[in-house]
C-alpha cells in the first residue's frame, strides 16, 4: 500500500508538533511556564491563553484546541465550571486539569462532571506536562 504524502497534512504526520493548545490559569507565570515547557518539547504550533474560566470557554469555542490545560481555582468562573461548559459544548474535549488543590472531591468533580481526561498537581515538573499532553494527543489520533 502506497501512501500519498502530498495528501497528508503536516498535522497528520506529526500531531504533537502541529496541535493547538489552550492554557488556562490565572497566573501569568504558570501560563508562560507551561507554554515554554511545551514549546521546548516541540509540542504544539499554536498556543492560546486565558486567565479565567469565562475566557477559557469563549477561546475554546473560537479556536477549538486539541488540548486544554485548565487550572481549577480561578476568579469569575472556576476550572470545574469551565470544564463542564466546554465538555457540554464538545464531549470529545481533551481537558487536563492542573492545580495545587489536592482535594480528592474537587478532582473527582472535574473528572466526573467536567470531563477532564487527566490531572497534574502543582508544583509540577516539565515532564509531567509533556507526558500528559502527549498522551491526550496520541490517544485522540487513534480514535
From TrEMBL:
Domain Response regulatory: 20-137
Pfam families in alphabetical order: Response_reg
Biological process according to GO: phosphorelay signal transduction system
Protein name: Response regulator
Organism expressing this protein natively: Nitrosopumilus zosterae
Highest classification ranks of the organism: Archaea, Nitrososphaerota, Nitrososphaeria, Nitrosopumilales, Nitrosopumilaceae
Amino acid at each position: 500500500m502506497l501512501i500519498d504524502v502530498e495528501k497528508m497534512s503536516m498535522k497528520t504526520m506529526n500531531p504533537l508538533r502541529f496541535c493547538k493548545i489552550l492554557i488556562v490559569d490565572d497566573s501569568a507565570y504558570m501560563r508562560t511556564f507551561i507554554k515554554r515547557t511545551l514549546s521546548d518539547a516541540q509540542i504544539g504550533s499554536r498556543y492560546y491563553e486565558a486567565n479565567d474560566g469565562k475566557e477559557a470557554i469563549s477561546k475554546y469555542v473560537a479556536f477549538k484546541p486539541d488540548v486544554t490545560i485548565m487550572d481549577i481555582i480561578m476568579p469569575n468562573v472556576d476550572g470545574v465550571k469551565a470544564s463542564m461548559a466546554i465538555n457540554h459544548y464538545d464531549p470529545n474535549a481533551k481537558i487536563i486539569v492542573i492545580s495545587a488543590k489536592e482535594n480528592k472531591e474537587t478532582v473527582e468533580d472535574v473528572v466526573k462532571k467536567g470531563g477532564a481526561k487527566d490531572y497534574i498537581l502543582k508544583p509540577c515538573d516539565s515532564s509531567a506536562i509533556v507526558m500528559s499532553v502527549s498522551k491526550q494527543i496520541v490517544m485522540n489520533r487513534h480514535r
